[in-house]
Structures are given as structure tokens and as C-alpha cells.
Amino acid sequence: MLTKKDLEHLASLARIELKGSEEEKLQKDLGSILDHFKELQALDTSDVVPMTGGTFLKNSLREDAVNENLMGKGPGAFPDSQDGHLKVPPVFKS
Fold first, then answer.
1. Is 82 helix (H, G, I), strand (E, B) or coil?
2. What phi, psi does 71 have (nearest 5°)?
3. How far apart are CA 3 and CA 23, in angstroms?
4. Number of domains composing the chain
5. CB neighbours (10 Å) of residue 27?
6. Taking the mean position of all CA atoms in its chain, how far away is CA 37?
7. Which residue among 4, 6, 44, 53 has its CA within the 20 to 30 Å range from the CA of 28?
């Protein structure tokens, strides 16, 4: 069970101030959360294979390819370019 001293210590670590009614509610709520962990600790997991990452899938990457611009948007429709780079108006004025 979570004691009042434990709760005060946790509140100081979290840098929160608790009022009397808040302390009682938080102590009850945290106690019920810890009870759930006790239930989980009681489970027999000796036959469960440990997981790392959750899946055995590997990345399937595609080759990079230049796609033809069929919508008329993109670099071909850009108003100004220089040396293969798109030119944009300055955002900040100096």
C-alpha cells in the first residue's frame, strides 16, 4: 500500500502541491494502479518467449526514381530557377 509519506515524496519529486482531498484521491488511485502491477507479477511467464521489437519484418525499400510530373505542378511549373535549383523570393529582408 502507498503510504502518505510515499505520496508526499512522489509529489515533491513531481513538484506538485496537493491539498488534503487531492492527497486522499491520489493515494487511492495510485494504490489501485499498483494493485494492477501486483496482478501482473502473479502471472506465470516462464514459457513466454521474450520479444525484441515486436516483429520479424525487415524494411522493404524501393529504388529511388524520378517520376514524370503529369499534373503540371512542381519544378517544371516553378517561375524561376538557377543552376538546377528553384529560386524563391527572400523570406526575411536584411
1. strand
2. -95, -5
3. 11
4. 1
5. 19
6. 23
7. 44
Question: In the structure grid, which three cell numbers stand for residue 7, read together?
Answer: 505520496
pLDDT score recorded for residue 66: 78
Q: What percent of the chain is modeled with pLDDT above 70?
A: 89
| pLDDT for the residue 35 | 92
Domain containing residue 16: CATH number = 1.10.20
Enter the C-alpha cell of residue 47: 514459457
Q: Do 87 and 81 contact (CB within 8 A), yes or no?
A: yes
Are 32 and 13 in contact by the 8 Å Cβ rule? The answer is no
Host domain of residue 22: 4-41
Q: How many residues does the chain have?
A: 94
pTM (predicted TM-score): 0.45
Say if residue 70's pLDDT is above 60. Answer: no
Lowest mean pLDDT among 23-27, 32-36, 55-59, 66-70: 66-70
In a domain, 10, yes or no: yes
